[in-house]
Amino acid sequence: MPEHIILRDLDIPDIAQFDVYVNHGGYQALRKAIKENTPDQVIDIVKRANLRGRGGAGFPAGVKWGFLPKGVFPRYLVVNADESEPGTFKDRQIMENNPHQLLEGIAITAYAIQCRAAYIYIRGEYASVAGKLQRAINAARAANYLGPNILGSDFTLEVYLHLGAGAYICGEETALLESLEGRLGQPRNKPPFPAAVGLYNKPTIINNVETLANVPPIIERGPEWYLSIGTEKSPGPKVFCLSGHVNRPGNYELPLGTPFRVLIEEYGGGVRDGKQVKGILPAGASAPILPAQALDVPMDFESVQAAGSMLGSGSVIVMDEDTDMVWAALKMVRFFKHESCGKCTPCREGTYWMLKLLERIHSGKAQLSDIDLLNEVASTMVGKCFCPLGEFSVSPVLSSIKHFRDEYEAAIRAQMKMAS
Amino acid sequence: MAQLITLTIDGHEVSVPPGTLIAEAAKRVGIEIPVFCYHPKLEPVGMCRMCLVEVGTPRRGKDGQIEVDAEGRPVIAMMPKLQTACTVPVSPGMVVKTNTKPVQEARAGMLAFLLTSHPLDCPVCDKGGECPLQELTFAYGPGVSRFPVESKLQFVKPVPLGGLIMLDRERCILCSRCIRFQEEIADDPVLAFKNRGRGMEIVTFSNPPFDSKWSGNTTDICPVGALTSRDFRFQARPWELTNTASVCPHCSVGCNIALSHRYREIRRVMPRENDPVNEIWICDKGRFAHHFVNSPDRLSSPLIRRNGQLEPASWDEALDLIAQRFGEIKAQAGPDALGGLAGDRAPNEDLYLFQKFFRAVVGTNNVDHRTPAESCWPSDDMIYRLGVASGTDLGKLGKDTAIFFIGADPDEEQPVLWLKLKKSAQKGGAALIVANGRPTKLDRYARYRLRYRYGSEAHLVAALLNAVLSHPRSLPPANEGEGRSKEFAARLDGLEALRAAVAAYTPAQVAEETGIAEGDLNTVARLLAESPGLVILFGREAATPAVVHGLANLALVTGHVGRVNNGLVALLRHNNSQGAADMGLFPDRLPGYAPVSDAGARARLSELWGASLPEKPGLGTAQMLEWGTLKGLYVLGADPAAEYPGSRPTLEALDFLVVQDLFLTPTAKLAHVVLPAQSFAERSGTFTNTERRIQLFYPAFNLPLDARPDWQILNDLAARMGQSFGYASPSDIMAEIRNAVPIYQDLTDLELGIPQSKGRRPRSSIIHLGTRFDYLGGLGHQWPVMAEDPQARFNLAWIAPESDSRLQTPDSELSFVLAPIVRLYDRGTLISKSDILKPLIPPLHVALNEDDAAALGITDGDRVQVRSAQGEIETIAHVDGLAPRGVILYPIDLDTATDCTLFVDGAQATRVAVKSLAISYQQPGPAAPAPQVLGV
Fold it and tell me: For A346, which of B49, B192, B195 is closest by C-beta distance?
């Protein structure tokens, strides 16, 4: 890719500095938005660009902004910087190395949805990132790109940083709101959706860091330019977090629709030690495992779903041919069990039960019928959990049994043989 | 009434109001959707996932029209996922399926999940037998457990959550009903979840732990045996218990309860649903203060004083002696040398018989039920005239009703009433105005708070009257609106005189006296005048005759009487204070409030009773307890020797004193004959609550005591004194009361009749309410007030506010106001028999303001000396921010002897001096003795 749109720090190393960002055209999109457009026009531009949420669900951002009830104020913008999906580290690079693009995106979005306060909910482990981000906020505010009467207009915006306390569930938007309000991080019932009743019971828009970083270039260059990148239904650039058994893990900004193979082989330098791919986790721990046959699937929301998984936040974890898939499922279920908030029964009890069964299978103390029991426990959870965390937690189990059942059986049989 | 929404549940069509949840709509067609976290009284959360059902809605085409199939029926689009019936509201044309295979599998799945954490220790669990988890597992659960038993959670068990409640963590299914109850209903948010996921557990973060008067309710609504009361743990299995319908014998709310008993012992007290009275809640005093019934201190046989000692005697001996001695006194000194003092805890039937005994058999009007201070007041019939109209539910007042509340702390005095007022203000949107000399928990929900200076209550009310009368919408001129018509104005006598009388009390003029700004009084007055409905509640702390008459005038001149959600409520102290007044336990009023001087009323009763009635008004409590006025006194369920120690010389000097009680009280110890009475648990009868609701309670068991019900004792005594009443049961007496007391004439058996619930409760009530007993009627009967008669005329009697010299005169010596307050947990005779509540009863103390404490050099816990014009005491000071500046709060009934040392007459506010004794006092542990009281 000739030019980075989101990870501009790769082209301009010091863009994290306010002056460097401004010298490279920074905050001109904000100026354009405020001076040349009404808030509704900004929403319309983002709608036309079909900017889809980069947090995982891929919901069109402009459409979401349009859900705000008319005439109800105050409203809030909440930036989801709780980046806690295993294998995801894209927002960190944006916040550390290109923070002003995020802040500019926040300011434009706040202008569009007419709110005067934005909260960045950043994961607790990113304390050092938060420090850098706060300095960027201070610099932008000193230059009147944030704060009262931005650029001489009557648009005022204060941006607040809030550190989470280390709970994966707080990446779920309503649990995030609960946590931001100072309560136990557990998801809320929907409806009402946050756009209607959100932070402090006021209309609230929650967007991912990367989503908002896409806003300034869209305003600056227009929706048509944006639509020319990526696929028809999934336009724009996407930062893919490549990790696992590859030679060059890292963040790679590619147009949506780029096949896995290109990411892994061209950018990631292929699988370590020249081995073969056995499985791909396209969205961290949350989406079903794809087998090696899926290497040529384009990485856009529709294609990955058609292949039986989800693009999610684009955190691609590659597993080579030597990977023990039972072990991999165990690791992921252990994560979900640890992070289950405990609010709903199936997730709280199901993740624990699945973990116990996987431990039994992995340590070879299981019987063959335990595979079916595991499959059944996971299936019972499907569609019944309170929030997506519980629904996601079954993905590694169901997909690994579906694609690699032989490994489960082998793990059990090996032990049975030894015992006999 | 909004348009109903029609939907189909399992093929049954049902129409319900908009906003109804699927789970509630299903109940209407008799379909039980299993739930754990959902509770009809709490906000839905949808976390247990037990109530998953299939839901579909009519599919709409691109044109927005509902698509129809070939037969013209709407095409239903079923939602891909199962939905929680407890969170999804109904919508038109919705189709709900509650018994399909996916639903059945989901239920079995959820139960399997819930049981992975659950120890299944049903055989030793107190909830076993009435446990939703047990019931639903039996109904819907998988038959087999496939969860590895070694992976089950194990905890140290149980942990005390507070003084009254125990938590078995491994039984908990984390439904948060208890947490939400404490937040939403009780507004004591002292419970929370700790940790997350499977490590989550219920914790309390208050100090002392689980600091709430409502903690027992969490054990009722807990859908498993995680929360149990210390009182009931391992006492009995639920199916072994007999549950007898009863009415709480403590405060004046009259909560409906069930006495669960076995082997003649109350094992627990449970709330019984009665929506207008207590919904499904009771306070912890009602739940845990039942131990007096089975106390070993109960009197077990009559006692007769022989050679200065009280010795056991037979009933015949005792009754014969009383008949003989009363007869002698009557013959020698006349009937007015005898008198009767009854406590307002006894049932209506017994109180009726008590006054009938004195009026018809002895021939005197010397009967009373009030305290010495109260018996000086001439406002006893205010509720009879202007009480809230029947049909008023204080928990369901809405936006069109204002509530004026003055001079009480219902949170401590009538907890369930507090709950209802809170609900009306918070959920219903009623405009609550709280006038009080000090902050209370009710303030939280008040739209306006009027913080008056102690002693200026009547001025406050007079100023409101003044402002209301100058408001264009008060009477007259008559404006539109019910109750404000010219016709109503014409039924008021003395309006112009009243207008002239209050002219001097403008809000501006009383501002200094009351400490309330003129503008605030005008705002409140405008609200009172303009509100379509107005309920006025007044409590003990402000209920002087001037205030009560002022409030009555306020209700009358704004036309707020005689209609539902309008009128007065007196916050009375005891379970049958209202009934005692209704039954004519007054020296100057007959049953039904007719004055003794009313010849017609006397003639009517005299015909009914077959005896002539004395026409001279009798002596009130204060006069009867004066030295030398009586020769013989009959005390039924009262304890003047303890409560008014000044009366001891009188009691000791009486020729003959009869005391009828459950216990050998200080008064009983002075008696010549002591008669053991039965408690409410051993007999039937009726109580009338503070909203005038007559409610029936049933006998639970007989105790192996030689005690008799009060009415039977009086019946037998009357027979010995030459008049045979011939009653065989309390219902015989109630039949006569309906004839004798006009306000009770409409009372029907159906309204009283409550079927007893024995054995198991129906599953649906266990699951949906947790506390509900099968219940077919008998919500009680609220008797109508005079104002409901459209012909009734009203006299606007005026009593000028007097500056209370004791309170208002600046006095450099006695610089503080000492305000008596009531605490829920005091050292009353009944509550002090409950060991479980003893740690919650605070030691004697006074509370003072932080600034005052700083000025006096007092810190929290210091010993202080409090001196009034009458006497002085030493006690501990609490510096807790609840006392306003210049006011010392003094909880009464923690030490009745001390109460009487400080207060001049009864328990009215007085002036005191306070000084630090500069001895730091260690915070007492639960068993710390009450501090030594000096100067008694």
Answer: B49
